[in-house]
Amino acid sequence: MGQLKIQASLSGLNSNDVYKKIGNFKNYNKYVDIVRSISVENIDQNTSISSWEIEFENGILRWKERDVFEDKDKVIFFEMIEGDIEKFNGYWKIIKNKSGCQILFFADYDLGINMLNDILDPIAGNLLLDTIKSILIGLFENIHITVEELKTLSVEEEC
């Protein structure tokens, strides 16, 4: 069980354009080598189901997630509904500022292997952190990562 947070800043880019590019998941594999495939099924105007396959260490990580787009606030909430790990939920948030905008990514994750959490969670957390950073760098060449936080939680802390 763990949490990860990434903050990044972009100068000279419109927050609406950044929000649209972040939310256009099906084009990620054009920008990022580690993304093998993404398919998106629109459920309604603000909700979709996306299926992901990404290169992860020496294998492929697969999952499906429900994505909810709150255009007014420039937030994309995601919740894994099935996949190779137990839990992967969080959000992307785009915040307008004087020089451009800021991107905030936050996620809770759980591999679902309780006996090995203390060993595997920090490894998986670092891989997830690197994956999200690779996506951001692939999408935006002038991005500046300002915060990288990884916190692993024991069972007692999560409760």
Q: What name does CATH use for the topology? A: Alpha-D-Glucose-1,6-Bisphosphate, Chain A, domain 4
The main β sheet shows up as: 8 strands, antiparallel
Estimated structural class: alpha+beta
CATH homologous superfamily identity: START domain
In the residues, how many domains can be counted?
A: 1
Tell me the overall shape: globular
Describe the strand arrangement of the main beta sheet, using strand numbers: 2-3-4-5-6-7-1-8
Distance between the termini: 11 Å
Estimate percent helicity. Answer: 25-40%
What's the alpha carbon Rg, rounded to whole Å? Answer: 15 Å
Number of separate strands: 8
Average pLDDT works out at 86
Give the low-confidence spans. none
> What's the architecture, going by CATH?
2-Layer Sandwich
Q: What is the CATH C-level name? A: Alpha Beta
Percent strand equals over 45%
Order of helices and strands: EHHEEEEEEHEH
* Number of contiguous helices: 4
